Amino acid sequence: MANRAYLMNHSQEAAIIAAASEESCLLGANYQAPILWVALFEPNDLTFVSVPCTNDNGDEVIEKIPTLFAPTAKAKNTYAARSVSLARALGTENACHISEWEAFLSSDLPASMLQIDLAELWMMYENQTDLELDLREWLSGVNNLSGHEWESLCSQANLNDSEVRRYGLRGFPWQSNVQWA
To answer: What span, in angstroms and rounded, lies between the C-alpha atoms of 47 and 45?
Structure first.
């Protein structure tokens, strides 16, 4: 089973889990949080969603899993403010992926809220609080494109691997009709 993250677009007033609204999962990414998704959000967009899980004893427990969640218009504005510096940092070899991403942003987000569901990635962490720490670091990375945080974000997105770089930048279609894969 792939541990995926999902870029969701929905109209709920609070963060939800992908399993509760699969039709809102526009894009997916395996084992990573794509850089251009993270660039939609600011540190104050980090919140938690309650997810029913089964513990080692087989008991159902509710876990608080970090997620990034913001109004679609705000997220698009956050990305727009970063787009030029991000494109410069990501280089010309990624221009086509960035262009596809920006076309997606301008046409395929009808609902009022954007969210990155990270529950499946959270399950991969041995220490469950480490995903929150990583998210905070990655959010800092999109603000400071030359520091350790940026390097951490690029590393988890596998930007050094030309075969999978496009997924680490923008993910792949899930419920969306985008033409790129």
So the answer is: 6
| CA distances in angstroms from 64 to 27, 47, 48, 59, 100, listed in the order given | 23, 9, 6, 16, 33
Q: How far is CA 35 from CA 14, 19, 23, 54, 101, in A?
A: 23, 23, 23, 30, 11
**Closest-CA residue to 65 (of 23, 7, 124):** 124
Q: Taking the complete model, does pTM exceed 0.85, yes or no?
A: yes
Question: What pLDDT does residue 112 have?
Answer: 97
With a cut of 50, which residues of the chain have pLDDT below it?
A: 1
What is the structure's pLDDT at 1? 47
Does residue 179 lie within any of the structural domains? no
Assess if residue 181 is contained within a domain. Answer: no
| Contact present, 91 and 162 (Cβ < 8 Å) | no
Range of the domain at 148: 4-172
Q: How many residues does the chain have?
A: 181
| Residue 177 belongs to some domain of the structure | no
